[in-house]
Write a structure and sequence with these properties.
Length: about 160
């Protein structure tokens, strides 16, 4: 197998690509709906689905845990925005609910995967209904560890 970027190995990235391929056909179909202007919704859906994919790729390339979590969380937000756009397509009467269901299922899985990824790289621990954040000292120590790792890498490459 040829060499790949790290983000290309992520299942969530692959699913986001599949969603983009699926939604491209749906947008063409929605734009043909008579008496309904779908240009704005489809444009937003196109941007949101692409944003999710790009944030996932960029986040996976970040070394600091809190930055990775932030990019993955942004990707999650864009995926939920895509789901809202699908709802708008139905609400405006361009397509029936059944037509968008496969996309909503893909997006639900994408959001679940991204949430797990955010939790993995976040300093936040959830217990029951309460959320507890890490202390500032712990976050600073993690940032120092990341800076030391970066320094070690630069030293080795010289």
């Amino acid at each position: 197998m040829s060499e790949m970027f790290d983000h290309e190995r992520l299942d969530v990235y692959k699913l986001e690509l599949s969603f983009i391929a699926w939604v491209t056909g749906l947008m063409k179909e929605a734009k043909k709906a008579p008496e309904v202007s779908m240009a704005e919704v489809c444009d937003q859906l196109d941007r949101a689905s692409l944003s999710s994919l790009l944030n996932t790729a960029e986040g996976n390339g970040k070394r600091q845990r809190h930055l990775r979590a932030r990019y993955f969380d942004d990707a999650r937000g864009s995926a939920t925005e895509s789901a809202a756009c699908l709802d708008a397509i139905v609400a405006k009467g361009a397509l029936p609910l059944e037509r968008i269901q496969a996309g909503k299922e893909m997006l639900l899985r994408i959001v679940q995967m991204l949430m797990k990824t955010v939790e993995r790289f976040s300093n936040t621990v959830r217990e029951g209904e309460e959320t507890y954040g890490s202390t500032d000292a712990a976050a600073e120590a993690e940032d120092e560890d990341d800076d030391e790792d970066e320094h070690d890498l630069q030293t080795r490459s010289r």
